[in-house]
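Reposting from the mailing list since nobody answered there.

I have sequence plus structure tokens for a pair of proteins and want to know whether others read the tokens the same way I do. The first protein:
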Amino acid sequence: MRSERGDGSLGEKVFRVAECQKALDRACRKVGADRITHHDLRHLFATRCIESGVDIPTVSRWLGHKDGGALAMKTYGHLRREHSIAQAQRVSFTRVGTKQADVIAFPAMA
């Protein structure tokens, strides 16, 4: 995008838009989609990252949060139904074979 514009330095913002909602509204109307906001896109990004396996503290840092992930967990920690179903199918209650060398015995406490 910068190369097509031809002017400006690499440090300059890619988009010269102070407010993008009108452009998003136009685009949604054009394709017949429901209205979305930049905040909806941020929420989608965070949710998809978490569903893809990116850990919450990393997503939190990417979003600019400074609380170690507490707000991201509260806000974005929910899962879409489809993701929840797919994750539930990964759970197994069958006995997992364990080699004796992998077991650490702890003495019984009285």
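The second protein, same order (residues first, tokens after):
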Amino acid sequence: MAKKNISDKNGFVFSTDPNFAFQNSGPDSSETLAPAKQRLRIILDTRHRAGKTVTAISGFIGKSEDLEILGKKLKQYCGTGGSVKDGQILIQGDQTGKVRAYLQKEGYKI
């Protein structure tokens, strides 16, 4: 079986050089900013989801582990499912009010 090509954050998928390796230098390697210094965006989205509504939170700057933790806390607070993909937190349903209240309580700028 052939190895699956995995792209990096810059969009590179394939190289003809057999010794080529992606250089991971980006937001994942940086330290997580304090909540007061972060500006998050809350978007209600239905695209590419078979008409189902999803609340998407983007703009987080920091480690992916911290993003996963914030996503887990938001899912627990809203009492619904969701996931963390491509630097975004996705919460099932129209949870914009609850998400906004939780993030403001934690000190994030909206």
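Reply #1 (J.P.):
I read it the same way you do. The chain has a mean pLDDT of 85.
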